[in-house]
Amino acid sequence: MRLNFNTKILGKNTILVPYREHHVPKYHTWMRSEELQKLTASEPLTLEEEYKMQKTWQEDDDKCTFIILDKHKYEQNCDENDSMIGDTNIFVIDNDNMVGEIEIMIAEETARGSKKGWEAVILMLLYGIKFIKIKTFEAKISIENIISINMFQKLNFKEKSRSEIFQEVTLEKVVDNNWTKSLEGHFEFQLQTYK
């Protein structure tokens, strides 16, 4: 999405940066994992296809993605690729009603269970509310991905539908002022220019 092309979001323990070409090789390595393919309902892509996909994420007005960096690791080594732990996305699936599908993936096993995914998804929700103007969020999650389902339920998402055929559940949250304020109460939200 052109909107976030030069945007960096700083949190307490994570930094969100736009998905750029130099992130592709590590991202591609992650997505060769059968476990991540299953959890994210993704198909494996060739490296060339992954570069093309990155380009669409950067240019399409209905897709917003950020790479999640471990902030403390990045502050020590200033190496984005070494500090990458996952990604978070919003797809605008209904422009008329501003419905956005949100996704989060913590690909690095060492970063799982550290609350970095929790922080990153809240930062992304706030970005979606404030800058993309999302009015309703949906999260489509594999039925087997109990950790993600629980995380979104803790964020007040409610089950909207369940597909036994696709083995996924769709959770939904309508944006309101009280919920936005509760999200803002969790983590500091600071924007910087990304170069």
TrEMBL record:
It holds the Pfam family Acetyltransf_3. Keywords: Acyltransferase, Transferase. GO terms for molecular function: N-acetyltransferase activity. The keyword Transferase applies. The keyword Acyltransferase applies. Belongs to the acetyltransferase family. GNAT subfamily. This is N-acetyltransferase 9 isoform X1. It comes from Papilio xuthus. The gene is LOC106117366.
